[in-house]
């Protein structure tokens, strides 16, 4: 049997390309927020198609918290080189000096300083007026309400009550200086769509998505991978090799793995179809308190 | 990365085969975009929660969330907690924004827009409806058809949705009473006849209990129609955009090097093949399609929905916003259009005010030249009105800064719809649906004259300009303007003063002091000032002109450097204590309404060309200062 995009995925692809072209035409200085995950891989793939034969008319920006999985960083640099892309990496220098870590400072503070604040710094320093992100509406309840063009005030805050209505395919790019837009071309994709597209288009993704024996410890019901020796082990904790994979990728001490034997994309797809838990379940930061994602977004989290 | 190519592992090949088989089986599966709407508490969120749970689209941890967040602690899942995304909504127990949900069955994929029921969120309902082909209108069986139900049916029809289902919910609470169900259906039909729906399906159900949602109900043997899901899976919707005239909007010019010039955009209707002759609008240039480029290689043809890049055989300049069509299928082109507007902003629509208009990839300025009538959204009756408030709908004539290329909304929503954007707040203030271009637009031609502004001002030996004095009543605008004219006149300059009070005795005597009339007042005086400047005069305009938008509109009528905004900066207390015409006293006593500074706003200039504070200086000193400025700018 031959691989070819289904009608529905072609439709989703065309809609996303339309959004990317619109934003590239309307904003002065867009940037693509590249988080190295599968959604970013798809976003990048779409950007390459949207502007072909030109290169995407914007750089890639990665916010490096210094706590990403090592394989993510390797993958990032390999991809940027292979595709000859303009990749910029930013880490919050103050956070680096203060040695902010998710382990000693907790996930909330770490996320705020190393992700939210770092992102604001990078967007401000680069004078970017629009940032593409790979967020999807099916990920989480507060995302389901977010616009394709999500307006942020000059402090990068999101106000869910003052979102601009988006009708038909029309989006409003008007802003005052200092304000910015987050643009979400994958808004209407689901997790299953993303994986099916990755499979049919042969899009490279970080190997951590595929099951393999990896050293993990179990904490509060989450499987945390011991990616380097910065993870202090509690008394009685010994890393054990288990067959695991990740459904979502972030900072390794904050990202729970799932036990799985799915080592190829078709197997991952099968697992999702049969699975009974959502992909963000492994994200420690979403569970700080109910409605926590919405709160983070208001503060400027992507 | 080669993980996809690894073969040899039995399990992988099997999974891959199964996946390809499933994808092939699903290939014919279409997509239905629909919205759910209805009155508050009719149970929309519960219904969607039920559709998601029963079609196995909700994960265990999300179900757990629906239990954990709940106030009740009952064993039942609170379906609405699955879908009411925002904290504020959960606290208030209502849906205030559109939420999009995704689910699929073996027969169809669905995107659901869950839209709010409250009156004040009508705009969000219109937003949800704009991308949908079908609507599910919920009615609470106990309450029947309410004004909200009627309103939502009207909005749905206004946005061009032709087929709907009326889901009569909470049948369990009326003992599955057939007679009551029939009564509601009759009631709805008699009201909805003028709305022009092609098909209305009535389905009795209970979202909470699951009756007739997915599985047929055991409690309603009298009902022989499909379940809601059954109907959603089979209803035929949509026009056939592929057989419609070809339309392609240029979004982005693709120019990687000198040898390639492509026009990137999406085919919004019809189809195009390599070799076809097309016409670029509005320039009217005819060209041939040489290539249809995509990231996956060139295509021979492209049809509605495809995002491609067109390359033409001929050297031609097209720009963003241009519309490509076939030779005998021209879109309309006009700078005056008739359109229906749905107003979205807290600030009411003001005829005469200048807004930004975005239609496809075209952007220009627009003013509403006339509100023909408002629509009573409960029954689509025509109602007289001067402005549109939040959530109101009206039929308007709109004049645009540049001519628009468009189709009527009924023919093609993609090329017949637009947004209005406030130019100061940058908010989207209205959605518009174009009905037709007004003939008038193409008939009024600009008369070319032989003697122009330059010739007239050269003869007078001066640079014409307008000195626009803005400030509160009693701030000293007229005093300073008058003094300036005397000084300029003595210097042999040709001048004219347009004074607010005087103009209101003649040209503007039909206008009052409402916000709408104030906007029109300024528009007329700005246009008059433009004629005088064109005649070569130095014009002094002395008008309160309280709104930033209109001062900006006035500025935009003039060339760079011709318009000087002068803020006569006198604090309200001082104006009130001067009260040269006794007006403040009357306003305070309630004898005059809409008085600027008292019960009507004055928006201070943010960047005036001159800021004249009258507290420390006399009018003579201020005039002297202004004259010096005019000299330094080379005006006199």
UniProtKB/TrEMBL annotation, chain A:
Annotated EC: 2.7.7.4
Region Disordered, residue ranges: 279-302
Reactions accelerated catalytically: sulfate + ATP + H(+) = adenosine 5'-phosphosulfate + diphosphate
Pfam families xrefs: PAPS_reduct
Keywords linked to the UniProt accession: ATP-binding, Nucleotide-binding, Nucleotidyltransferase, Transferase
Listed pathway(s): Sulfur metabolism; hydrogen sulfide biosynthesis; sulfite from sulfate: step 1/3
Gene Ontology molecular function terms on file: ATP binding; sulfate adenylyltransferase (ATP) activity
Gene Ontology BP term (one): sulfate assimilation
Subunit structure comment from the entry: Heterodimer composed of CysD, the smaller subunit, and CysN.
Reported function: With CysN forms the ATP sulfurylase (ATPS) that catalyzes the adenylation of sulfate producing adenosine 5'-phosphosulfate (APS) and diphosphate, the first enzymatic step in sulfur assimilation pathway. APS synthesis involves the formation of a high-energy phosphoric-sulfuric acid anhydride bond driven by GTP hydrolysis by CysN coupled to ATP hydrolysis by CysD.
Family to which the UniProt record says this protein belongs: Belongs to the PAPS reductase family. CysD subfamily.
Protein name: Sulfate adenylyltransferase subunit 2
Protein species of origin: Methyloligella halotolerans
Gene: cysD
From TrEMBL, chain B:
Identification of the protein by name: Multifunctional fusion protein
Record pathway: Sulfur metabolism; hydrogen sulfide biosynthesis; sulfite from sulfate: step 1/3; Sulfur metabolism; hydrogen sulfide biosynthesis; sulfite from sulfate: step 2/3
Keywords: ATP-binding, GTP-binding, Kinase, Multifunctional enzyme, Nodulation, Nucleotide-binding, Nucleotidyltransferase, Phosphoprotein, Transferase
Binding site residues for GTP: 38-45, 114-118, 169-172
The Tr-type G domain, residue ranges: 29-242
Self-association state and partner proteins as the record states: Heterodimer composed of CysD, the smaller subunit, and CysN. Sulfate-activating enzymes, NodP and NodQ, may be physically associated.
Recorded catalytic activity of this chain's protein: sulfate + ATP + H(+) = adenosine 5'-phosphosulfate + diphosphate; adenosine 5'-phosphosulfate + ATP = 3'-phosphoadenylyl sulfate + ADP + H(+)
Gene: cysC
Binding-site residues for ATP, renumbered to this chain: 471-478
Family membership noted in the UniProt record: Belongs to the APS kinase family.
Organism of origin: Methyloligella halotolerans
Active site: 545
Pfam families: APS_kinase, GTP-eEF1A_C, GTP_EFTU
GO MF annotation, one: adenylylsulfate kinase activity
Enzyme Commission number(s) from the entry: 2.7.7.4, 2.7.1.25
Lineage, top ranks: Bacteria, Pseudomonadati, Pseudomonadota, Alphaproteobacteria, Hyphomicrobiales
Keyword Protein biosynthesis tagged: no
Any single biological process term in GO: sulfate assimilation
Record SUPFAM superfamilies: EF-Tu/eEF-1alpha/eIF2-gamma C-terminal domain, P-loop containing nucleoside triphosphate hydrolases, Translation proteins
Top-rank EC class of the record's enzyme: transferase
């Amino acid at each position: 049997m031959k691989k070819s995009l289904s009608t529905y995925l072609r439709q989703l692809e065309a809609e996303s390309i339309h959004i990317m072209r619109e934003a590239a035409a309307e904003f002065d200085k867009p940037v693509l927020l590249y988080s190295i995950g599968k959604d970013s891989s798809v976003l990048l793939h779409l950007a390459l198609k949207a502007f072909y034969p030109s290169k995407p008319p914007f750089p890639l920006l990665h916010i490096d918290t210094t706590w990403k999985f090592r394989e993510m960083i390797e993958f990032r640099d390999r991809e940027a080189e292979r595709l000859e892309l303009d990749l910029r990496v930013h880490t919050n220098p103050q956070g680096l000096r203060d040695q902010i870590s998710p382990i000693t400072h907790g996930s909330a503070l770490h996320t705020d300083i190393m992700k939210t604040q770092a992102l604001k710094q990078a967007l401000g320093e680069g004078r970017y007026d629009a940032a593409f992100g790979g967020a999807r509406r099916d990920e989480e309840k507060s995302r389901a309400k977010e616009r394709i063009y999500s307006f942020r005030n000059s402090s990068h805050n999101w106000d869910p009550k003052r979102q601009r209505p988006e009708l038909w395919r029309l989006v409003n790019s008007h802003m005052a200086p200092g304000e910015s837009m987050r643009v979400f071309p994958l808004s209407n994709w689901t997790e299953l769509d993303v994986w099916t597209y990755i499979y049919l288009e042969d899009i490279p993704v970080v190997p951590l998505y595929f099951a393999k024996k990896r050293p993990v410890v179990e904490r509060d019901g989450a499987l945390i991978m011991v990616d380097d020796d910065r993870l202090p082990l509690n008394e009685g904790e010994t890393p054990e090799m288990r067959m695991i994979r990740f459904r979502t990728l972030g900072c390794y001490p904050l990202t729970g793995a799932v036990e799985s034997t799915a080592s190829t994309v078709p197997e991952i797809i099968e697992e999702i179809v049969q699975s009974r838990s959502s992909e963000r379940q492994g994200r420690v930061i979403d569970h700080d308190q109910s409605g926590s994602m919405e709160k983070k977004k208001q503060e400027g989290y992507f | 990365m080669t993980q996809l190519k690894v073969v040899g592992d039995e399990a992988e090949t099997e999974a891959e085969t199964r996946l390809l088989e499933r994808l092939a089986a699903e290939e014919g599966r279409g997509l239905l975009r629909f919205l759910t709407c209805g009155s508050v508490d009719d149970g929309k969120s519960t219904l969607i929660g039920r559709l998601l749970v029963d079609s196995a689209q909700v994960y265990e941890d999300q179900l757990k969330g629906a239990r954990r967040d709940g106030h009740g602690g009952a064993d039942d899942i609170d379906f609405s907690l699955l879908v009411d995304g925002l904290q504020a909504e959960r606290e208030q127990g209502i849906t205030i924004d559109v939420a999009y949900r995704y689910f699929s069955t073996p027969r169809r994929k669905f995107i659901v827009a869950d839209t709010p029921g409250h009156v004040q969120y009508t705009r969000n309902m219109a937003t949800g409806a704009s991308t949908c082909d079908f609507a599910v209108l919920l009615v609470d069986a106990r309450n029947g058809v309410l004004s909200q139900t009627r309103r939502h049916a009207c909005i749905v029809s206004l946005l061009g949705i032709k087929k709907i289902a009326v889901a009569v919910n909470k049948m369990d609470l009326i003992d599955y009473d057939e007679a009551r169900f029939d009564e509601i259906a009759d009631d709805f039909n008699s009201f909805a006849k003028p709305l022009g729906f092609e098909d209305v399906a009535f389905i009795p159900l209970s979202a909470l209990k699951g009756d007739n949602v997915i599985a047929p109900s055991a409690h309603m043997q009298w009902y022989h129609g499909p379940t809601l899901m059954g109907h959603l899976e089979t209803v035929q919707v949509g026009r056939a955009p592929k057989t419609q005239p070809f339309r392609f909007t240029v979004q982005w010019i693709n120019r990687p090097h000198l040898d390639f010039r492509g026009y990137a955009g999406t085919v919004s209707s019809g189809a195009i093949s390599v070799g076809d002759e097309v016409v670029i609008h509005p320039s009217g240039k005819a060209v041939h399609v040489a290539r249809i480029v995509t990231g996956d290689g060139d295509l021979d043809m492209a049809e509605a929905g495809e995002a491609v890049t067109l390359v033409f055989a001929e050297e031609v300049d097209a720009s963003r916003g241009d519309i490509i069509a076939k030779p005998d299928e021209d879109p309309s082109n006009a700078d005056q259009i008739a359109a229906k507007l749905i107003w979205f902003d807290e600030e009411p629509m003001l005829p005469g005010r200048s807004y930004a208009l975005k239609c496809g990839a075209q952007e220009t300025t627009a003013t509403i030249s006339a509100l023909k009538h408002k629509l009573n959204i409960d029954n689509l009756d025509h109602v007289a009105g001067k402005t549109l408030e939040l959530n109101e709908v009206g039929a308007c004539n709109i004049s645009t800064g540049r001519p628009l290329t468009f189709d009527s909304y009924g023919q093609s929503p993609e090329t017949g719809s637009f947004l209005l954007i406030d130019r100061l707040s940058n908010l989207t203030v209205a959605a518009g649906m174009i009905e037709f271009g007004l003939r008038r637009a193409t008939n009024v031609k600009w008369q070319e004259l032989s003697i122009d502004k330059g010739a007239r001002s050269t003869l007078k030996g001066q640079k014409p300009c307008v000195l626009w004095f803005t400030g509160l009543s009693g701030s000293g605008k007229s005093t300073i303007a008058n003094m300036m004219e005397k000084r300029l006149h003595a210097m042999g300059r040709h001048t004219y003063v347009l004074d607010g009070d005087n103009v209101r005795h003649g040209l503007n005597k039909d206008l009052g002091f409402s916000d709408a009339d104030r906007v029109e007042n300024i528009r007329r005086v700005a246009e008059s000032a433009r004629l005088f400047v064109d005649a070569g005069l130095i014009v002094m305009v002395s008008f309160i002109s309280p709104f930033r938008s209109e001062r900006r509109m006035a500025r935009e009528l003039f060339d760079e450097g011709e318009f000087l905004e002068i803020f006569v900066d006198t604090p309200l207390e001082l104006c009130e204590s001067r009260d040269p015409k006794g007006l403040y006293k009357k306003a305070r006593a309630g004898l005059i309404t809409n008085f600027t500074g008292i019960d009507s706003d004055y928006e201070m200039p943010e960047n005036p060309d001159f800021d004249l504070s009258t507290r420390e200086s006399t009018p003579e000193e201020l005039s002297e200062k202004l004259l010096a400025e005019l000299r330094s700018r080379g005006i006199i």
